[in-house]
Amino acid sequence: MASQGSVTAALRVAEVLETIANRCVGPEGGLVLCTKPTGEVLLSRDGGCLLEALHLEHPLARMIVACVSSHLKKTGDGAKTFIIFLCHLLRGLHAIGEKEKDSFTSEDIQSHERHWKNCCQWKSISRALLRFQTQTLGCIVDQHLSRHYLSAFSSSAEGRTLCRRSLELLLEPYFCGRVGRNNHRFISQLMCDYVFKCMACESGIEVFEFLDNCFVELNVGVTGLPVSESRIVDGLVLPRDFSVYCPADGGIRMVIVTEILQPLFSSSSSEFVLDSETQFQASQSWIMDRTKTVMNHLRSHNVKLLLSSVKQPDLVTYCARLNSISVVECLSSEEVSLVQRITGLSPCVLPELASQCHIADSALVRFCKPLIVRSGRYAHLGLVSTCAFVPHCVVLCGPVLGLVQQHESAFHGAFKMLRQLFTDLDLNCMIQTKERRNPSPLADSSNRESSHSPKTGKYQDVVAKNKDKLETQTRLEVYPRLGASDTELITCKLWSAHKETSIDPSQTNEIPKRLSPEKSRIVDNCEVFLENNPTGNPTAEDTRTEMSFKHLQVADNPGEGYTLPVTYKSPDTCPSQAHCSSAVPAGCVLPVGGHFEILMHFYLLNYAKQCRQSDDAVISMLIANALLGVPKILYKPKKGKDSFPHIYTRALRALQTRQPIVSGQSGFESVAGKYQLLTSVLQCLMKILTIDLIINVKRQPQKTGDQESEDEL
Amino acid sequence: MSRLEAKKPSLCKTEPLTSERVRSTLSVLKGIIASCYGPSGRLKQLHNGLGGCVCTTSQSSALLRNLSVTHPILKVLTSSVQNHVCCFSDCGLFTAILCCNLIENIQRIGLTPTTAIKLNKYLLGLSISYLKSEACSCRIPVDFRSTHTFLNLVHSILTSKPACMLTRKEIDHIGALILKAFLLTIPESAEERMVLGKSIIVPLKGQQVTDSTVLPGLLIEASEVQLRRLLPTQKSSTLRVALFCASLSGDFSNAGEGTLVVHYQVSLENAVLEQLLNLGRQLVSDHVDLVLCQKVIHPSLKQFLSEHQIIAIDRVGVTLMEPLSKVTGATPIGSLYPIVSTTYGSVKDVRSARFGSKYFFHLLPNEATICSLLLCSRNDTAWEELKLTCQTAMHVLQLTIKEPWVLLGGGCVETHLAAYIRHKVHNEAEAIVRDDGCSQAELHIATEAFCSALESAAVSLEHDGGEILIDMKYGHFWSCPADSASVGNWPDTLSRCGCGLYNSQEELSWSVLRSTYHPFAPQTCLPQAASGSVSNLTVDSFTAKLSGLQVAVETANLILDLSYVIEDKN
Predict the structure, then answer these.
(1) Are strands A508-515 and A524-531 parallel, antiparallel or unpaired?
(2) What is the CATH number assigned to the segment(s) A236-262+303-390?
(3) B210 near B173, Cβ under 8 Å?
(4) What digits encode the pLDDT tens for the residues A132-174?
(5) What angle do CA A261, A262, A263 make, to 5 degrees?
(6) pLDDT at position B338, please?
(7) Which of A267, A275, A375 minimises the CB distance to B263?
(8) What's the predicted TM-score (pTM) here?
(9) Domains in chain A: boundaries
(10) If I label A56, which of A290, A562, B20, B213 is the partner at 20 to 30 A Cα–Cα?
């Protein structure tokens, strides 16, 4: 069975997800209680977790969930906003589609054909979106939004440092959306303390990467205690007790082993032949002697702590006890690698231990003692760090396991968010333009072809040469638009390369072209309007897409003949190339409460007004309006002066008069995170738009690849 | 091959608390729990239709363990209470009742979850800081010079578990035993870090409760035949003990992953046995008197040892290993060959003992913090309940050492605290609202919900239809029998308040708890003389109750915060 994939279908799916996300988003949102088939109960406010727990069946929904999860993997934030934003975008597109439909009904086309036509239209919109996202969006952010950036760093003589207040302001709104209303303040304070305890110096922001990678091993969950009992402990806590504990202090050294320290009779794929009973006894006693020697050797080098990733036999633990060496067994491989990363220690091998030489791989430990949290006993080690991370662990308490897990994942997400925030984000607006200057061999050949073409305005020849068989079906026309010049080419913006959209009811296919000259620094943009009158059969449509693909290739090439003076001048949208810094610098933040959305909305609207291309304008209008969806929901419970219309008009007035916007809420959010969210949503939308048919296959899945990717969420 | 099966979509429910079904199941659970509360609580008989033994209980730990709840919200509630009981042993029912009450009350008043949660949190903070403050008149410091408070604490715990089926005399007996066992676990020499010992409960069913006893050292159950071999020791000095954690049965476990080729004539059994006998010879030459083994001792070795007058006890089990190593001071030996003399321990004496139909080896320690509590009861169910109660009492005593306070019990803390909060909020509403950003009306509604939840928890102590009163001076809890509940003769019918601190002969005025009373300031600062003069106070564990209060409010907030329940139907 197959169903048509359309904006309407996607909208229906997204709206269902949106109603769920609406209730959980923002500071007023509630918790979600998920039960697992095993009977476990999980509490969460994490949008990714929520979507995963739903086990959605609809293929479009599953695709959306996959997009959200891949976004979360990158940034650790914004799953619910993703859904809301996507839904608003689809709603906007749907409204455009409805308008289109009205025009269709006048023509007498069968519904099947109409569907095909719709698909083409969505596909071209999707392509236009891609261009808008990759080229225009980054520049808008870069040029306009950067004025409003605040920095999480406080600059001092030693360079960038992170001050406590700004970290608090960052974390509080984050946990507000991720942790239950009961505890978010406490948890954000705890995390703040934790971060500063773990940082070797104030500028040591590389610690976030470490924490993001290893946090699972750096926390211990305890159930049955109130959340307020959660605390930070110095050193590393391993979630198991000592197998052998011998109190020791001062000058403790530690080794890690990954194998059994007792020699065995035979190793795998070898044979041990027993000839006599005495031989057996002799080998038994040799094994015992050997083990004893190893442990004695360890003791003689002041090793008083043995970490083992495997369970050691009785003999080893007995010898350890005799030599007053504490033993912790059964460490997971993650824990071993964490200890290795902190101390720079590598595991010992048996031959090294058995030989009487010096043990190189041992590290100093400040203390090792059992940590008792109510009824649980843990091994508590005071490791000496050799990296930027000062070892500390968090003991997370909560009345139920679900809550402890929620706090753990919120901590983890926060580290991911901070890590993201403190790295530069490339907006790739200028870089792409530069890359495009190096034409590929294929483009070269078509370049030659196009240079053969007589002059401007004779595109059809080019195209005809490229795609001979299309000649009969396609008629190309070059429109003189806007009447700006008697040539048919109009330059547009510096950065935008191609825009293609069909918004015209009469099925106009516009193929704008950007042509960069080889020598001049000014990049011109040509727009060629290509009208296509299809005969109404699907193959014609197919070839048309192919053809327009060719056109793009042509447009890619810098051609001498197309260079024309810039006619459209705007200081805002046409800055010089050197001025462009195409990145969101590390540590850029904006106040919370829909600030980013309103600002982007304003600038996109401005852009749409200035933009003379209708397709570009429509897309930026679409995104601008969809962006408002998030603050609308955030301010929903507020009344009076704090309600959304008031906030919105106040913000717009402030922006128009170039005054700072006053924000009612304290707290910051990462610009890079928000920008990435925006691009992720647009990418997801493009994916949705390119689907024309959903085919339901009723067969056992062939391989597990698909299922695994689902589980990863 | 892994099974590949499409997952069924989950069931997603909005605003779960508004559904009638959830409310009714919640009130059923509350009914079950509340009816168990207190000394006159009703017992619950839990039996599984598929088999297993019947459990008669009124304790939260046994009740919730056996009860199977299906609704996810109830699962959160019960697992939260169970986790609390795991950590503190006591006050589980109180936590569960308070949590249910809070959820019900907040649902009824219809505040938005955000406001309700914020105010609940504020009120909890108020309660905790009051209970921890010096001004609190519900908190009695523990006097370590006498066992008075400890005995009261143990008594309160024993009387609140009616399923143990103890008479007054039996309660006194068991109470004294528990305290004695607890005192035996305290080490004599106080180092910087005191490590409490352990008391091991040994079951002895079918005997009178009054036959229970406490013995220092360890009891190891044995057969009569084994014990008959035990000759009275000739030695006057202490006995030397070897404690093995390795198996002495002659098995061969470290063969490795490769193949082992054994020639036809070679007998590994003989080889191993010879090693074992070598070990025996070493033990004899080291003058060991007692060999204890966690696992099995080879019969030949056993024979050899008994020929040399060495007592051998095997199959001790892993649970007894740590206490054994503590009692004897021996290091568990993990190998057959290198035995160092420092690993040997010692005991004062080994005796045979018979209690009821059971025979035991009794290891008498030289000096150790291990004791055995031989617990008798007439039947299995009562014994299980008694054992749980003893463990609770022991744990609560340990907690009391860490935080040397007890709280007044018998419902007095709850009513007093409610009166205190009402008064505080009544007087300082403006200041509170200014800091918290909510309206005064919301604050008053939430306070009423919180206080009446506390009071309802206290009211749950009464199961016989009596009237619950509160006095207007101390804010304590008074229970008035059902038949004489007329306003006029209250001073005559009432004798003592719930905790037993005050009697009705003072000039007191009462009000019915369920009615609204005008907020008054309950008398703070506990008169020192008052606590000393009363012999039988009902007291609760300070640590457990405080944590129970916190957990209850936190769990209630958690449940109120839910906006979706997603049930995985796979």
Answers:
(1) antiparallel
(2) 3.50.7.10
(3) yes
(4) 888 788 888 888 887 788 877 776 655 667 788 888 888 988 8
(5) 115
(6) 65
(7) A275
(8) 0.82
(9) 156-218+400-421, 236-262+303-390, 430-579, 582-673
(10) B20
